[in-house]
Amino acid sequence: MPQRKPAKRSATSQALARIDRAAREAPAFLGRLFGAAGEAVDDALERLLGEPFAERMARVPLSLGSSGIDPFGLDPEWMKYVILAVATLHRKYFRTEVHGVSSVPTGRVLFVANHSGQVPIDGALIAAALFMDGEPPRLVRAMVEKWALSLPFVSLFFARVGQVVGVPENATRLLAQGEALLVFPEGVRGITKTFDQRYKLTEFGLGFMRLAIETDTPIVPVAVVGGEEQYISVANFEGLAKLLRAPAFPIVPQMFLPGGQLPLPTKYRLWFGEPMRFTGDPDDDDAIIEEKVWLVKQTVQSMLNRALKERKHIFW
Amino acid sequence: MSESANFRAAARVRMPSIPPASGGAVLVTGICGRLGKQLARVLHRERPVVGVDRRPFLDKPKDIEHAQVDIRRKKLKDVFRPGDISAVVHLGVMHDPRASSAEHHSWNVAGFTKLLEYVSQFRVPKLVVLSSANVYGPHPSNPQFLTEEAPLLGGQNFSDIRDLIEVDMLAQSFFWKLPETETVILRPVHILGSVHNAPSNFLRLNPICTVMGFDPMVQVIHQSDAVRAIELALRPGIRGIYNLAGPEPVPLSRYLKILGRQRIGVPYSLARIILGRMWSLRLTTFPVPELDHIRYICMVDDRRAREVLGFTPHTSLEDTVRSVDDGRW
Q1: Were both Cys, which of A233, A271, B60, B263 would link to A223 (CB 3.0–4.6 Å)?
Q2: A114 and A257 share a domain?
Q3: CA distances from B9 to A280, B45, B75 (A)
Q4: Structural domain boundaries, residue A78
Q5: Is the pLDDT of residue B9 over 90?
Q6: Of all helices (H) and strands (E), which one includes residue A269?
Q7: Model confidence band, residue B112 (pLDDT cutoffs 50, 70, 90)
Q8: Residues A116 and A18 in one domain
Q9: Is A315 within a domain?
């Protein structure tokens, strides 16, 4: 009996010591785990980009302060993870074909694209193409709806990946800094199109043209093919949408199939057109601005038509 | 003649050697606040300084005159009466969230109206009003950088600061009411330092509560930089509204990191309830609407101050942020 007691105590203390050791090592272990995950992210990005992420990021014309964050809240550290996700979609899932990205001017530029696909994957893919396939790589900024920035986490995420509130002051300031801006002049009307309306441009807003004239920015028309088939919307329940105060309520049958919540893996094709320049008075009458907008719209539409004609298959 | 005016007359006799740099004494309201004292220390080396505050001015430099009067009282007129005031700097804005709104209104609006009346009556050539970038208010739909022309929406969700906006508006009306007076309105972002204002007090907390899922970009300015901007605004020929910002903006979390504070993220709905309870139990000095400052952006474009006023902040981001710990007691 007297011999067992110390043995028992030592077992307890051993167990405690083990727990203690484990607790002490846990932060180091977690650190290693996160470190390894970070390295895995770096490796995966390097494979997709063909060069280390930091090198590519360094060539992006950005106005980062000494704190490493740009005045709009963009943080390159966050970008790494977002770009990995988007690059995977770009290269592996949608296997995007990119045409004409070399003719994109350096300096400030306004991309005007058709909007499609119920979910704005088209914007993400244009951004990925400009970062991964353009030289110098660009980080394109899109304008975010105001209400999105009153949501927790969403507002934080958008700010850190360089998306800004959609107000004219921000657009003007970004272009003055020489940044690239992406606009979808169709807006919600474009993205919620039903399948029968695919690749038919809806009405364009006029704001982007006034902005381009005011800041003397070249407009690059972009045609996105492949987005309309990712979620096939057969109808739009407008009454219900109004009731829910949502912009639209599309009926997408594939949603009811297992795995159909993911977009169909269509092959995306992005066509960047030649830059267009406009002059005049940004405060002209709508009628005069409309004519210029019509020119851009027709360019995007004809690029779309040509791209559709050249397309042999939706999925490859 | 009242006591303070007598004192003023005597003082002028005592120090005739100081040349009226750009015409004589500077009257500083709210001189007994921490910012006021700093300004007085900087200004009194160059030109006569007259302080007005209802608080006593302890450890006052000898050559500063201090009139301990309430700016709502008629007695204020006696300070102007000798006629040598060449500039008025209005720092004496009350922003005590615990004071009643009637008190706020009578002090900020009625008091300031009185002051303006004397500025116009005694033809004071310069008026500098320290407003704040808070008059624009934090909103999710704010442009990233608000210019001086942006609407003053600060009272939209925070009605207690409406009188501060009114002060700004009253000063603006002075541009055309009395064009011969050079009126300057300064709208600095959050002033940090030993001052006891809401942003400095917030950063003095430990741990600091933030709103979960929000990390807005925030601009701050060091108190010494704010003082320098006031000095620059006193130069002849300067008039108009100027936004003031310090070092480059960074996210709120970066400030907490610099200070090494612990951070507790609380969901907004919960934070509102807790803060509301604490407010009613007088456990906190932060009213609930101030939560918006740690949710949404309220940043200013200070290009005009840099170009016209010639203002550049001298204090680095780290020093600006760390300076809040100087004001602990």
Answers
A1: A271
A2: yes
A3: 64, 20, 16
A4: 68-310
A5: no
A6: strand A269-272
A7: very high
A8: no
A9: no
Shortest distance, CA A6 to any CA of chain B (angstroms) = 43
Q: Which among B27, B143, B167, B157 is positioned nearest to B93, based on CA atoms?
A: B167
Q: Is residue A56 part of a domain?
A: no
Do A154 and A18 belong to one domain?
no
Are B317 and A67 an interchain contact pair (Cβ–Cβ within 8 Å)? yes
Shared-domain flag, residues A124 and A250: yes
B184-226 pLDDT per residue, tens: 999 999 999 999 889 999 999 988 999 999 999 999 999 999 9
| Pairs across A and B, CB distance < 8 A | 65
The C-alpha of B39 sits at a distance from chain A's nearest C-alpha, in angstroms, of 30
Are both A155 and A298 inside the same structural domain?
A: yes
Give yes or no for B173 touching A (CB within 8 A).
no
A78-90 tens-digit pLDDT? 888 888 888 999 9
Q: Are residues A23 and A105 in the same domain?
A: no
B256: Cα within 13 Å, side-chain hemisphere: 19
Does pLDDT of A66 surpass 90?
no
Domain count, chain A: 2
Identify the residue with better confidence: B29 or A47: B29
Q: Can you read off the two tokens belonging to residue B51?
A: 């302080």
Residue A58 lies in a domain: no
Q: What is the pLDDT of residue B215?
A: 93
Judged by CB atoms closer than 8 Å, whether chains meet at B267 and A72 is answered as no
Cβ contact B43:B88 at 8 Å: no
Q: Select from A143, A163, A169, A177 the residue whose CB has the most chain B CBs within 10 Å, as the one to mutate to test that interface.
A: A169
Q: Which domains does chain B have, with CATH numbers?
A: 3-191+220-246+299-313 (3.40.50.720)
* Residue of A63, A72, A163, A179 for testing the chain B interface, max B β-carbons within 10 Å: A72
Do both A98 and A221 map to the same domain?
A: yes
Q: Which of A93-107, A138-152, B248-262 has the lowest mean pLDDT?
A: A138-152
* Res. B12 pLDDT band, cuts 50 70 90: very low
Same domain, A31 and A90: no
What residues contact A232, with CB distance under 8 A and at least 6 apart?
A: A195, A252, A253, A254, A264
User: Which residue of chain A comes nearest to B146, CA vs CA?
Assistant: A169
Q: Is the pLDDT of residue A196 over 70?
A: yes
Nearest to B143 among A153, A156, A169 (CB): A169
For A177-193, what is the mean pLDDT?
A: 87
CATH code, A225: 3.40.1130.10
* Region label for B49, one of left (φ > 0), alpha (ψ between -120 and 50) or beta (otherwise): beta
Q: What is the pLDDT of residue B61?
A: 87
pLDDT, position B100: 86
A292, part of any domain: yes
